[in-house]
Specification:
Layout (H helix, E strand, L loop, with lengths): L3 E6 L5 H12 L4 E8 L5 H8 L4 E3 L8 H14 L4 E4 L8 H6 L4 E5 L11 H8 L3 E8 L9 E8 L6 H24 L3 E4 L2 E4 L18
This protein binds glycinamide ribonucleotide.
Length: about 220
């Protein structure tokens, strides 16, 4: 069977990209990364991709008059690479309607908070400032809103009393690296079915049992 071809968009260090590269290599993810595109010439993600022998492309958003022109160029590269699924992995640009129309229900994102809480930027600091006892990460389909699309998978981590945004971001990243490859594998297996706001996984995985309490119930 033809492997799902991923087009990964990343702006930063690329640890999520690395987890996808590693998951493809060890067989947890039956997909191949066709291209890695960054808007940031200095992105560590480009280096990681090059090291893994993956085609890279830098499209600097500063070279474009507006978002639509930039997105048009990105979509062209994705098409040239015969991308099946667009994977946003720390891509810090909002994507336009043109982009979404080019890949309907075929763009997914990972966000470092438990959506719908804390969409947008600096979300680890937002969770701390709000006093949330838990935060986490969310893999979701991308729609026309900012971090509003149907949710595929989430992971929860505690927020500790003395956490800095960096501490919390690091704790969340560990879980991002687990759930993103898994969510993409479910897509690759054609198990994700969007029904309105909800994503149904078929056949259904075992239910998640057990509650977490922070602080714990004892002591
Ligand atoms: C990750 O925490 C990801 O969830 C977040 O950027 C980080 C990228 O890290 N994405 C967003 O905030 C999207 N709005 P990485 O470059 O090491 O994968």
């Amino acid at each position: 069977m033809k492997k799902l071809r991923l087009g990964v968009l990343a702006s930063g260090g690329g640890t999520n990209l690395q987890s996808l590269i590693d998951s493809c290599a060890d067989g947890r993810l039956s997909a191949e990364i066709a291209i890695v595109i960054s808007n940031n010439p200095g992105a560590g993600a480009l280096e990681r991709a090059a090291k893994a022998g993956i085609e890279t492309c830098c499209i600097n958003h500063r070279d474009f008059a507006d978002r639509t022109a930039f997105d048009h160029s990105v979509v062209q590269q994705l098409r040239d690479a015969e991308t099946d699924l667009v994977v946003l992995a720390g891509f810090m640009r909002i994507i336009s309607a043109t982009f979404i129309e080019a890949y309907p229900q075929r763009i997914i994102n990972i966000h470092p908070a438990l959506l719908p809480a804390f969409p947008g930027l600096h979300v680890q600091q937002q969770a701390i400032d709000y006093g949330a006892r838990f935060s986490g990460c969310t893999v979701h389909f991308v729609d026309a809103g900012v971090d509003t699309g149907p949710i595929i998978m989430q992971a929860v981590v505690p927020v500790h009393e003395e956490d800095t945004a960096e501490d919390l971001a690091a704790r969340i990243l560990v879980e991002e690296h687990k759930i993103y490859p898994r969510a993409i594998q479910l897509f690759a297996e054609n198990r994700l079915h969007i029904e309105g706001r909800r994503v149904r996984i078929l056949p259904a995985p075992p239910p998640c049992n057990g509650a977490m309490h922070n602080p714990g119930l004892e002591g």
